[in-house]
Amino acid sequence: MMKIDIFNHLFPKKFFDRYINAGSGGKDIGKRVANIQTIVDVDSRFRILDEFGDYVQVLTLPLPPLEILAGPEKSPQLAREGNDGLAELVQKYDRFLGFAASLPMNNPDAALKEMERALDQLGASGVQIYSNAAGKPLDAPEFLPLFQEAVRRDIPIWMHPARGADFPDYQTETKSLYEIWWTFGWPYETSVAMARLVFAGYFDKLPNLKIITHHMGGMIPYFEGRVGYGWDQLGKRTSDVDYVSLLKSMKKRPVDYFKNFYADTALFGAGPATKCGFEFFGLENVVFASDMPFEPAPGLYARETIKCVEALDLTKEQKDKIYRGNAEKLLKLKSVAARR
What we know:
Layout: E1 3-9, H1 13-20, H2 29-33, H3 42-49, E2 55-60, H4 66-69, H5 75-92, E3 96-102, H6 108-120, E4 126-130, H7 144-153, E5 157-160, H8 180-183, H9 185-199, H10 202-205, E6 211-213, H11 224-230, H12 243-249, H13 254-258, E7 262-264, H14 271-281, E8 286-287, H15 300-311, H16 316-330, H17 336-339
Parallel strand pairs: 1-2, 2-3, 3-4, 4-5, 5-6, 6-7, 7-8
Helix pairs in contact: 1-5, 5-6, 14-15
């Protein structure tokens, strides 16, 4: 059965050598990405993919976010170089089906221009953003035109979590310990970004907005009860803001808006979590992804993720939707299987 891995990461070599290997992003997650061979070595990656048969990938740039690598004056240039590199890889190799363009979110005007360039000139499948833009929430007014343009063009937005050790676990401390910022901080980041967009009314303003959340929507599926009945009581726990009126203005229950998001299967082989996420988001909104190449052993995440999908109580046709069909529809592709 063919598989489209919709959320994985690869650096074009020129970009990697110039901005990552040279030390620009060598802190926290930047240190991690600089030491993974298959994050830049295409031949090594293809040897891993051989294990999985008919398997293609939609590429994204790995972390760090461009807005962390450079200030607003230089980040647009990084975006252009990174996106040009991904486009070249897609053009050169059949196993790379497409790419999501990265944007310089600390320069919103330049981000919109780069989005247009990447879609119109490079053939990008959509755009990748992070759960915050150098500390700014995604529902900040300066980012609204980007979401509006994505809806106008009917393209998806890949949303990746972003948080580092400099975000402490407690107010009395200066940094997060034991990589808690990654293990628990990233799912929280994803969930917060989703919530901010929901309560800012983005799915009422932009009902056709398509956002792919990495790692199966963070915490949302597991906390369906709190997201559901808990937020049905929005405002009852707050004394200084009128959230009750906000709740009344919403066209449906808060929990129902969260089901507008898409979610990928990149859960590192967590079977119960995969089932939980599938039951929350539903068959039409779950897409296959591996998060390659961040596994502790080559191919492990893809291998374990496939096991999780196979363990779901689904028909062959339903599994094909997760592996291939939903991605084809989301990216408006003609049948990839038929072309190969």
